[in-house]
Automatic annotation (TrEMBL):
GO terms for molecular function: ATP binding; protein serine/threonine kinase activity. Keywords: ATP-binding, Glycoprotein, Kinase, Membrane, Nucleotide-binding, Serine/threonine-protein kinase, Signal, Transferase, Transmembrane, Transmembrane helix. It is found in: Membrane. Its main location: membrane. Pfam families: Pkinase. Residues 11-297 form the Protein kinase domain. This is Os01g0114400 protein. The keyword ATP-binding applies. PANTHER family: RUST RESISTANCE KINASE LR10-RELATED. The keyword Lyase does not apply.
Length: 338
């Protein structure tokens, strides 16, 4: 469905408090029917030309999966372009997993994780064109009234033929902390659907521990700066980590989220599972899961604390190029909290 911006009156939508790198987002109401929608008004200086915009809308518009936010309409009129999505009243996963109070049980967290995995797997395997998201993070996972998780925000997504096993585009895409290593250096492998798997793994670890995967303000020699190292130490070395239960007290679903997350963030892309394999791991028995290799850079200084070497941390936290590309587009995710 194509909609015209002029047909949506000012009184029918409200400005979101958040504004991302790709445009402003409004909460709207389509009449008749009082259907609530999220309207993303793209910036006029967007790099996407008219033909590419229509092509991507046509592809994304055919996506129908319970775990992917549905595109219900669009507008393309001269330089004015807008995307109209179903409105997610519960907002983003971000505000729940990083809350000081645990909002979900382990069963619910596992259910949400499975929903996210199924949504990503559908993008990779269930569409005519393979859709690589390139920006999986808590802000881009939205929740409906029943807390069903849905993958959202395709601002950095790219479409590729399903038979293509790797991506030749070397442009950096993603958000610092969730970006796969191969997005930074060829030495870690090719860019592929496994790049989304890495981001998903970081998300799982955050869901298990309730904290961000990395702290750019922490001292680069402090183990607290790189959270996945803490998780690994707790599971393998039995070192106490504040956010993670000790092994004896750990809920089996907490352990499962941690183990699957660690598998997904293996540094070499070929060592990671596919999304369909990650789903099988989340659905299976935790006792059947093997402990993966330590998924971090470990040189002389890194073995003790699991930290990547300083030059890699600098690339992740301080590169102006990465910062510019990873500018967050929180838009739709912030509507429910506005």
């Amino acid at each position: 469905m194509q909609v015209c911006v002029r047909t949506v009156g000012r009184d029918d939508f409200s400005y979101s408090q958040g504004q991302g790198g790709y445009g402003s987002v409004y909460k709207g109401v389509f009449l008749p029917g009082d259907v609530h929608v999220a309207i993303k008004m793209l910036d006029g200086n967007s790099n996407c030309n008219g033909e590419d915009f229509i092509s991507e809308v046509a592809t994304i518009g055919r996506i129908h999966h319970i775990n992917v936010v549905r595109l219900v309409g669009f507008c393309s009129e001269e330089m004015r372009r807008a995307l109209v999505y179903e409105y997610m009243p519960r907002g983003s996963l971000n505000k729940y997993i990083f809350s000081s109070e645990r909002s979900f049980s382990w069963d619910k967290l596992n259910e949400i994780a499975l929903g996210i995995a199924r949504g990503i797997n559908y993008l990779h395997q269930g569409c005519e064109m393979q859709i690589l998201h390139f920006d999986i993070k808590p802000d881009n996972i939205l929740l409906d009234d029943n807390f069903v998780s849905k993958v959202a925000d395709f601002g950095l997504a790219k479409l590729y033929p399903r038979e293509k096993s790797f991506v030749s585009d070397r442009a950096l895409r993603g958000t610092v902390g969730y970006m796969a290593p191969e997005m930074v250096s060829r030495s870690f492998g090719v860019i592929s659907d496994k790049s989304d798997v890495y981001s998903f793994g970081m998300l799982l670890l955050e869901m298990a521990g309730g904290r961000r995967n990395a702290d750019p303000n922490a001292n680069s020699n402090a183990s607290r700066a790189y959270y996945p190292a803490w998780v690994y130490d707790q599971l393998i070395a039995d070192q106490q980590v504040d956010e993670i239960s000790n092994v004896a007290d750990m809920h089996e679903l907490e352990r499962k989220l941690c183990l699957v997350g660690l598998w997904c963030i293996q540094m070499k892309s070929h060592d990671r599972p596919t999304m369909s394999e990650a789903i099988e791991m989340l659905e299976g028995d935790v006792d059947a899961l093997q402990v993966p290799l330590r998924p971090f850079f470990c040189d002389g200084d890194g073995i003790g604390n699991g930290m990547p070497p300083p030059q890699v941390m600098d690339s992740y936290f301080h590169s102006s190029e990465l910062t510019a590309i990873s500018e967050e587009d929180d838009g739709i995710a912030e509507l429910a909290s506005s």
